[in-house]
Design goal:
The structure is a homohexamer.
Chain A: E1 3-8, H1 15-27, E2 30-36, H2 45-55, E3 62-67, H3 71-77, E4 82-87, H4 90-106, E5 111-116, H5 126-134, H6 145-155
Parallel strand pairs in A: 1-2, 1-4, 2-3, 4-5
């Protein structure tokens, strides 16, 4: 059985993240979305997990879990054999290249696969959405509806 | 069932191509290596197919087939749902980016996944091997043994 | 008066080229589309000019002309002060960077401005369209209608 | 009438910024330099605005204004139809690519145009100048004279 | 006599840094490793200098010194005519490009040369090692033995 | 003794090539300019060698020689321990990265060093010069004077 881990900060989950998850769920038997438990996030870890869970509630083979530490350690614990990464653009790829080689060194049995963002999500990142939302733009159509509401509450003045 | 197509010129198959094939074969149920039938190759299409077949003869879920025309049309014909691409470096990625978007437009149901070359194959491409072999370098340890012999015969003086 | 030259092979004109032309025409008083008279094109120069003219017939401040030789010489002859270039992706940009510096050296008075392709045209180039059309794909919705017909006639079997 | 907004931190204005402003002022009827009101700047917003104003006092169609929040909102308020961006190198371009697509989403009516830095300013950025000035290098010939004086006062020991 | 300065944070020195130093020492008559005295390092400057000294104790033409301020000023003080930089990947190169042009402006007599990381060190950076070591991974085989011990002590829990 | 080989097509030698040669000659004891004997050049190999020799006649530690086949084989034959490469921009670097790793595989004892083009030569390549010269532009100030004459004769109409 192929178990894939899809790690990220997901601060918050965007339509781009959701798209990658759906595509991975169609390809692999089980997908574990791994939400990185970092302190400098806008949304606390519990809320980031809950928002992603709500977004994938119709995908039976997807689960969402928080993690901290090395993603390869988390993947081992989940008995995953695949690491899924979404690529949006060149800058992303450069960082991935480095990390892929380090991950391979740390966990040779874990296979990394990359999926490109769909055209309509090429410019949609958590960071960009936090940025424009904090400046008063309603990014509601770039994220799932309940995340749009959360962004509005978070940055309401 | 997940059927993956791994297309390329494979002129000739290298250890890097073989590595991607083995890794894809561990992840997907069936892998079809698709050898592009182009006229300007050093090795004729039959020989390129045969050399790849010899290299994967121990992988029961891998088959090797020639194709011409659009890779998305070949993938449909093989009822594949995944397209596997190996990425060696930045230049590769740039070309992939463009092609991925065009392929998505032509066949939205076909998922493209990217796998990075292993460290030891980062610089191994069919083109580079043809180039140095034609100048008298024995590239025998960068390709499967029978391909090394074929290169020696081809470029013997 | 700001006169802009928009040079290219336009073999054939795509919806992406058309989009850049429309946006330039909204910004500058006159736009001269300059079709490069190169011999290794799929469509002869007269046909490329005519296809572009048909596509912009509703834009009163746009004219289409063939040129050969240096684009900076053509721009001088047209009394243009701006050179418009569409950028689709990174590879494009790299080539532009070099050329921009050379053009500046040859014609310091000519200002180059760059406009990014719209999202839906990011992967649409003349080369890609010729390629897939020659393999039997109907690229009709990536080009103006009359260009779609021309492609079908050109690559009919 | 074409009104262009040229946004940036301008902390401080360099000869490179000035060059882009002059070239934009020759191409568009009105240019509004928009100085981003960010707190983590070395020079306070009033001083950054004043230094840029001093540098462009001979350009009648250029005005300098502070702004905060989304640049597209500021552009709308100024009734601008063009956003001017200077590109110095590849890293710049990567960030621009992302932002351009997001800006287009937020303000489809606003056209972004890119101008490349002149050869002699390719390596001149506000960040680099702050960095070397803070380490005691006199960057006086990379900025307008009055900015050179301000840098000397700021980093005097 | 050619004297080369090899500057960096070296927080801590890795096998990749050591490899560049050895290769530079084989090419130039004297190599001065210049450890940048920055406050936000994990290891204090004295310890970073000492760890590098220990790693190169068998290379008679290499010395290790701390520095702060501009690297070109330090190079002048050491009467160096060459600046050695290791390049690991594309992102590195982009930053180098900018800095090289600025350094040339500040010290035209100082020649910068670039050496590429060996294949096995392509993914080994001080930052990556600090990151994975802080998460509990033993990076002992990516750094000299005594640095491995120092990392274990630093991040022991 | 450090012997450096500086290989290229040099079709024709430009001021950029000359600049790299001078800088290498100041750093290494002997520099061998290696002119690649390729058939598809505009200037025949003898002329390319002679033009480069004329350009470096005042540099006593520089010699110019034709070569064909693998550059690493030529370097061995010259007992060189260093390979010098000029880098003009990103595209250059990408190709170098691949080649460097292959060269290291073929000749581990040969050290590759990279030098960046000076600012004023960033856009000057043999290819660009042939291109604009063939279109009637006098590229005389981008190449040594005698090469300018040769270009004028070659492309005279």
């Amino acid at each position: 059985m192929t178990v894939a881990v899809y790690p990220g900060r997901f601060d918050p989950v965007t339509n781009g993240h959701l798209d990658i998850t759906q595509r991975a769920a169609a390809m692999f038997e089980r997908v574990v979305v791994a939400v990185y438990d970092t302190r400098d996030a806008v949304f606390p870890i519990e809320e980031r997990v809950k928002m992603f869970e709500e977004a994938v509630k119709d995908l039976p083979n997807v689960t969402v879990k928080p993690f901290h530490g090395l993603v390869v350690a988390f993947a081992r614990q989940e008995k995953a054999n695949v690491l899924v990464r979404g690529i949006r653009a060149f800058t992303d790829f450069e960082a991935e290249f480095d990390m892929a080689l380090m991950n391979k060194k740390m966990a040779p049995e874990l296979e990394s696969v990359y999926m490109m963002a769909s055209l309509e999500h090429l410019f949609v990142s958590g960071r960009r959405i936090r940025e424009v939302a904090s400046m008063g733009y309603d990014a509601g159509d770039l994220v799932p509806p309940h995340v749009g509401s959360a962004l509005r509450r978070k940055f309401a003045r």
